[in-house]
Amino acid sequence: MQNLQKIKDKLQQYKIKPSLIRIKVLEYLNSTREHPNAEKIYKKLLKEIPTLSRTSVYNTLKLLTQKGAIKEIMIEEGEIRYDGINERHAHFKCVKCNNLYDLKLKCKSCLEETDLNKVKVMDEHIYIVGICKKCLKKGE
Amino acid sequence: MQNLQKIKDKLQQYKIKPSLIRIKVLEYLNSTREHPNAEKIYKKLLKEIPTLSRTSVYNTLKLLTQKGAIKEIMIEEGEIRYDGINERHAHFKCVKCNNLYDLKLKCKSCLEETDLNKVKVMDEHIYIVGICKKCLKKGE
DNA sequence: TGTAAAATTGTAATGATTACAAAATTGAAG
DNA sequence: CTTCAATTTTGTAATCATTACAATTTTACA
Ligand SMILES: [Mn+2]
Ligand SMILES: [Mn+2]
Ligand SMILES: [Zn+2]
Ligand SMILES: [Zn+2]
Question: Does B137 touch chain A (CB under 8 A)?
Fold first, then answer.
């Protein structure tokens, strides 16, 4: 399909050679908004690539992150989640169901320009922790 | 000194019984803006409390966090830093010197109210990753 | 084909955090 | 001052996601 070409193009755009695992990992991360961790990605791709190793998933995630094609999200200790959506947005982590939702940002920057114009900004992370709509309903 | 009383009051305010270790940990976190991790806090307090155990520091930090007296900051994998300053603010993490600086926020919320008025917000984290002024100068 | 570079794999190590049970301390009651 | 249960603190062992490393496989190109 032409979706494959899009993934390959994106990899090339970030100067990453398009191997099978890299394509599959990026394809998965671009197709979902669930922000999976390495283990979830491994389990998912194992169905398509039976020889896949956990190490390869970790290696690939590290590479994609370093090249800027995906983003690491660190919210809870001992678990890195990954986000393949590159548009600037914030996150909402529900402490009940553990889901991680995307949130829109209404302003370009919440920070004082005077603080920022002296430093080199490489990355920005904004997230809220709380209880989501669904879980609030469940608990009356 | 009367600083001690302030710390005790703050602990009581968050419904935490003021034991020696709790007082010392909170006192340290309220006196610094360096956002230390558990190990740094342990090393620092060991000078004053020679019988101190790492476990006690971890226990105390967990308790203070759960009660809301301090905040965990998770930016780099495998290292939780702690912040005793309760006023809402953002952070800047320098990837060169590894320092974590405080930043002022210019707006009350960067998020769409429509997204937030259906959920329960418990915590908010905003941070920038980049290279600080000092390190930029060093590298010409 | 031959071969060096790159990618992938499996196993072992790492290290911050946590679990757990024992020891010490506290504080109220007698 | 004692007693004793609750709380706090401690030391050791376990956890577990991630990383290091070396071996194997695959790729790309002459
Ligand atoms: Mn996202
Ligand atoms: Mn801070
Ligand atoms: Zn939820
Ligand atoms: Zn710096």
Answer: no
Distance of alpha carbon A26 from alpha carbon A31, whole angstroms: 8
**What is d(CA A10, CA B36) in angstroms, rounded to the nearest whole number?**
39
pLDDT tens for each residue of B66-95: 999 999 999 999 999 999 999 999 999 999
Mean pLDDT in residue range A36-46 = 98
A75 Cβ under 8 Å from any chain B Cβ: yes
How many CA atoms does the CB half-sphere of A134 hold within 13 Å? 10
Cβ atoms < 10 Å from Cβ of B16? 20
Count CB-CB contacts under 10 A for residue A69: 22
CATH architecture group of domain A2-73: Orthogonal Bundle (1.10)
| Chain A contacts in chain B segment 45-64 (CB below 8 A) | none
d(CA B140, CA B127): 25
Element (H, E) at A94: strand A90-94
Helical H runs in A1-140? 2-13, 20-31, 38-46, 54-67, 113-116, 133-138
Nearest ligand to the C-alpha atom of residue A86: 1
Question: Which bases of chain D come closer than 7 Å to a protein CB?
Answer: 7-12, 16-21, 27
Question: How many angstroms separate the CA atoms of B107 and A106, rounded?
Answer: 11
Listed by start position, the domains of chain B span 2-73, 90-138
In whole angstroms, what is the distance from residue A3 CA to residue B66 CA?
45
Cβ contacts from A onto B, under 8 A: 122
- B113-127 pLDDT, tens digit per residue, is 777 788 999 999 999
Asked if B140 reaches chain A (Cβ–Cβ under 8 Å), the answer is no
- Sign, CA torsion B34/B37/B38/B44: negative
The alpha-carbon radius of gyration of chain B (Å, integer) is: 17
